[in-house]
Each structure stands twice: as C-alpha cells, then as structure tokens.
Amino acid sequence: MARPAEPTRRRGVEAEDPAGGNQPALAPAPAEGPTELDLLVERLAAREAAPAHPVWVTPLPRQLSLDAVLKRGGGPLEVTLGLADHPLRQRQQPWGIDFGGELGHLAIVGGRRTGRSTALRTIAASLLLTHDPTAVQLYVLDRGGSLQALAGAPHVGTVAGKADPEVARRTVRLLSRLVDQRDGELRRLGLGGIDELRRSWRERGSGDGFGDVFLLIDNWGTATRAFDWIEEEVTALAGVGLSHGIHPVLSADRWGDIRPALRDRIPARLQLRPIDPADSAYDLRATRGLASTPGRTLGPGSCQIQLALPRVDGGDPAIDPDTAFRDLVKRRAHPGPPAPPVPLLPLTVPLGEMDWVEWRRRREVPLGIADADLRPVPFDLLVPDTQHLVVCGDARCGKTSFLRALLLAMTRVLSPEEVRFHLIDIRRGLLDAVPAAYLGGHAMTASAVEGVVVSLREELAQRVPPAGAGRRDLAETAARPWPRGGAGGR
Ligand SMILES: Nc1ncnc2c1ncn2[C@@H]1O[C@H](COP(=O)(O)OP(=O)(O)OP(=O)(O)O)[C@@H](O)[C@H]1O
Ligand SMILES: [Mg+2]
Question: 284-295, pLDDT tens digit by residue?
C-alpha cells in the first residue's frame, strides 16, 4: 500500500502552478526560522505608522456619562445630549440640539421605561452646566416624580408635582403672560423677534428678568388628562415660542397623545423605542433597528443616538444615578440669581397691610387678591348696579370671616356718616366686627330680628323721596348722610 504524501508546509506567498500540478510555485522554504509573512508583519509593526482606519466603529455604549460628551462654547443655546452613531461615515460624535435655532421646541416620545424622564433630566443638566441662571430658566411640570431633584438649582423657577395642579396652572400662565409682555414690547419697538429685543435690552441696559425659558413637561399624556386647560395654553406657547424665547420640551408615550396642532409646532423630535414601530417620528426601518437599550433614540436623519445619563462623575458605578444627578444639580450648576418664582395666591391676606390711605383716596373697598394677576380686588358695593352681595360656600369655608373682613374694610374707607350696618347674626360670628359708631342694629336672637328690620325700614322710609320729587331731590335723598352715633346691639 502506498504511503500518503507528506503535507507540504506552505511558506511564503503561493502562486498557481502554471503546469496545473499541486506543487507550490515557490521553492519550499526551510522548515525552521520566520516565514516571509512573519517578517513582513514584524517590519510593518516596527514602523510607527498610524493604525489602519477601522471599517466598523464599536457599537454605541449602553451607558454614557454626560461629562464624556459635554461640549461647551457652542451656539448660545446648544445643549449636548449624547453620542450619535454614523456607521456609514464610520464615526461617532457628541450630539446635541441647538434650541436657539429653529429646533427650539422638542418632543421626546417612546414606550415605558425607555428613558424619557432621564432625557429631560439630561437636557436640564446640560443647561445647568453650561448656562447662567440669568440666561436660561427652567419651569417643570413633573407628572412622574423624576424631576423633583431639579428644584435646588438657581435656574429652576418651579417644579410642579402631581399634587400641585394650582402651581402647574400658574406656571403655564406665567409663561403666557411673559409671551404677552414680550409681544407688546416687540410691537411697541417695531422689532422682529427675541434676538432683536435682547439686543435692544443690552443697549438700554434693561430686560424683563427672564432669559430663554424652558417649559419641561413629563408626561404630556397624563398632563392633558389632568388639566383641561393645558392643551390650548401650551399650543399657544409653542406657536409663538421661537420668536419669544420660550421652549416647550415634552415627553409622551405616543405621538397620538400630542394633537396635530401642537405636534406641528414642535420641530425637534427624539424617538425612543416606541410601543408600536409604526408610531414613530422616523421611518419604519430605522425604528425597527432601534436597540431596546434605555436612552437609545433616533434623532435627525434617523441616526441612532445614545443619550447621556445626567451625571458628571464619569459614570462611577459606586454612585447610583439619582445621587449623581442630585449632586450635579446641587454642586455643579452655574451659580447666579434664582429664576423668577411662580407667583402663587397667598394663604392669607392681612388687611392690616393694605394701603388704607390709597384706598380712602380711591374710595374703594379691598376684597382680597385676584387669582388672575395677584393684585388687590376693589369691591364696588358703592356702585348702584352692584349694591347687593351674596356669599355662598360650604361649611367652614370662610363666609363669616369674609363678612368680618368686608365690614372692617368698609369702616376703614368710609365714615359713619357714609355707611351704617344692620346685622342679623344669630350665631354671633360678627360680634365686635363693627365699631359702635357704624352699627344700626345687631340682632343676635330670632326675636331681635324684627326690631332690626323695623328700624331699617323706618330709615329707608325717610329716604323715599316725596311724590313729585325732581331728579336733584332723588340724588340728594340717596346721598343723605346717616346721623352720627350707632344704634348699638340688641
Ligand atoms: N440614557 C440612558 N442611559 C442609560 N440608562 C438609562 C438612560 N435613560 C434611562 N435609563 C434607565 O432606564 C430606566 C428608565 O428610565 P426613565 O425613568 O427615564 O424612563 P421613562 O421612559 O421615563 O420611564 P417611565 O415609563 O417609568 O416613565 C432607568 O433605570 C434609567 O436609569
Ligand atoms: Mg418617566
């Protein structure tokens, strides 16, 4: 039996045997020593040449600390948010949004636990790290509870939680008023937009106390279900925001939660992994290819972006993300004067602090503070058309206290010749509410009521002008002063 041929150790570069046989074209190399390939590699390695350009860059990281990508000194409102993958260009680059341009409003949409709240935190963190609190203010409607930690930063005017519907309403109203105010100033000065207005402020050394204002809303769907007013107000803000320096930034579960009127006014969109790939701001193929990693999003041009975590400690695994974020807000935010707070109705309005000289001059009686503009509300009881007043409300809601305050206010503004009180007060809540000089009668028992009514009727009878009285007589009778001295209590 013939022995099988010994396998030939191939060394060097082989070429095809022109004779068509199986023999290598080169002469067999000695069995010992380096091959030609070994020598080639050795020599190339010895030369300090730049490494070859890798055809495939490494995949995007699953986690990224904001400090790894944070860029300072870009456009005035450029905000770094993550790392973008451009596989066709074989590049990964820090990525952000320039809120100063036409991408001034942003929607972040994705399924549950995809990183929407964290994206809002990262936007806030990037702004706090790179902008002065006089240049940028944040107002936050936090429906999920993830953004409360922002409250400590000087840039943050308010963080309205789920339990603060009133604060949420006032926050949006504050921004609507700011728009109106800026609008008025733009028109008065004949200017085209916020940039021109800012230039004019710089030249005049003035301003309105606000810079670029961000309204962060997490999560829009629940906000619209909780507040029937919010859709209209935020849509209006988004309509004029770009030219007025107001930037709504919302997160949502699905695009359907944002009505078209608002969606059309939001130019910048981040698409985290959606519940249904068809519900995407980008094309279906790109959306299907989106990794399920939290914080992985599609951005402009359908490129994938890993959003950074809002921390600047290099992602130290020993520190949990919440602690790292709180630390960033507390210690690393640009210092400066605090953002204007959201004005809230006070819980009490001490009458003693009213400017009574001014109220007497205006001959008006203060009622309280108005919800709309937080200014004192004058009561026009003295105007003939609104002479009567009914106070209604549930038990213990403040009806008697209101009457006491009203009586006190009237005695501060008007003299005993101008006003007289006849009180029917069975529960005696108005005891001592009126100085004796102003008191026409005070019935504190059922039987005393008749006496008060009779004396009041007698008084009114004297005011009825005689038959045939002219217009002047009528006016004089109505304005007749009360005689000095009250009737006292009964
Ligand atoms: N950019 C990111 N990088 C790494 N992990 C992230 C990123 N964003 C979010 N995560 C992680 O994913 C989880 C969910 O994040 P987050 O609460 O922001 O998501 P969400 O979409 O707001 O969730 P929910 O549906 O509860 O509102 C958290 O554990 C968070 O740490
Ligand atoms: Mg959330």
Answer: 999 999 999 999
Q: Does residue 297 line the site of ligand 1, with CB under 6 A?
A: no
Nearest atom in ligand 1 to the alpha carbon of residue 306 is: 1
pLDDT tens digits, residue range 2-24? 444 444 444 444 444 444 445 55
Alpha-carbon distance 145 to 159, whole Å? 10
- Closest C-alpha to ligand 1, atom 4: 63
Residue 144 Cβ contacting ligand 1 at under 6 Å: yes
Ligand 1: which atom is nearest the Cα of residue 122?
A: 1
The Cα–Cα gap between 142 and 163 comes to 10
250: closest CA among 213, 280, 220? Answer: 220
Domain 66-332 superfamily per CATH: P-loop containing nucleotide triphosphate hydrolases (3.40.50.300)
CATH architecture of 351-478: 3-Layer(aba) Sandwich (3.40)
Percent of the chain with pLDDT over 70: 90
**What pLDDT, on the 0 to 100 scale, is given for residue 272?**
97
Residues of the chain with pLDDT under 50: 1-21, 485-490
Nearest one of 453, 440, 445, 454 to 482, comparing CA atoms: 440
411 Cβ closer than 6 Å to some ligand 1 atom:
no
